[in-house]
Amino acid sequence: MGMFSESVDVTCSASGQPLKLHWAGRLYTVCAEPVRWYERRDWWAEERRAPLGSGPGLVDHEIWRVQVLPGHQDSAEPLTLDLTRHIGSGRWRLLRIHDALQPRTA
Question: First CA to last CA across the chain, in angstroms?
């Protein structure tokens, strides 16, 4: 599993659920029901102070685990990614790649 932070463009449903994403010059389509949860972040390491009423997005990260396929290829194996959305700006970042780029052996 790789962990990093890279900007991605995400297209969502009306309810805010990821449907498609553009990453590294490729279009990926979500092929399974995404899972959402929240993780605490060390906000004090990044911010000097917490303005009153800024709890959502400051204390917790919204994380989505998605399985995606490149383009419309049904024969490819799904790739599992963890994405986060910044609540204030609505920007998405790729946090983790699961089972990524693992050499396959016969």
Answer: 21
